[in-house]
Model the fold of this input.
Amino acid sequence: MTEQRRTVYDALMEERNHPTAVEVFMRARNRMPSISLATVYNCLETLSSCGLVKTVNLERGPARYCPNNQEHAHFYCNDCGTVLDLPLRARRHPEDVWELPEQLSISHHEVAFRGVCPKCAMKAAQLPEQRENAQNTKE
Amino acid sequence: MTEQRRTVYDALMEERNHPTAVEVFMRARNRMPSISLATVYNCLETLSSCGLVKTVNLERGPARYCPNNQEHAHFYCNDCGTVLDLPLRARRHPEDVWELPEQLSISHHEVAFRGVCPKCAMKAAQLPEQRENAQNTKE
DNA sequence: CTAGGTGCAAAAGGTTTGCGGTTAA
DNA sequence: TTAACCGCAAACCTTTTGCACCTAG
Done:
């Protein structure tokens, strides 16, 4: 565990909002201005293979990293882009929901939900009258 | 639905093994030698937004495409790279397994399992003595 | 002295975009 | 005629790699 790796890890822990490598890089640079993006990638890779960090790769574009190494799924808000962690219910397993062939050995799984987060849902419900004037033409 | 889109769709249907865009491109070129990779990307995007094709983005590297628009999860074999479709069990929902906050509206979900597929598990069990001579240095 | 880690820059994919030309309604 | 689409090439973005330097054991 070198100084750079510690820095990257601390930067990741700073705010647990699933940052991309570039975001981690920017945070890390506040702590250690000389650090380079390549080093951040290297450190994230190292931390990931140590099991200290999880790499989340559920969308196009940059990978995201999270220090939460418990079993959990992710929820992406289609409106604001926030990522939430969803814990597994007690005594429930993904295998309960999907049909798995016999002799399939599962090493791990990645699960992502998409939708609208409570905050954005509230916002959308709060401002229905404003839509007459200017409708939001979102993708 | 232009000729190119039809060609791309047929190429995708040709073998339902979750090809990458480049693989679809190669298949499509057999049917229409003049087609370009950019057009394949465009067509896949169009088909995807029509709901005819699903884009699967659960790993680093190229996106994969599948014509299966039923609810299903994916299983990636760590050994041979095969992707299998896993159907949802009857009357089961992902929400049964993960703790979702109230007022979270789910539009859809993506689920991926990883492990070793039955074929590779069998192979590994069958040929333990050959590993002394020549180990396969795969990817 | 040696091994491993770092920083820089460049390369390597994978995907998207701009633009001129073509096609179909 | 007009709008959408295609093909090509270049751009773009994210990630990886090669290499020289540095540092700790």
Observations:
- The CA atoms of residues 5 and 43 of chain B lie 5 Å apart.
- The first helix of chain B runs from residue 3 to 14.
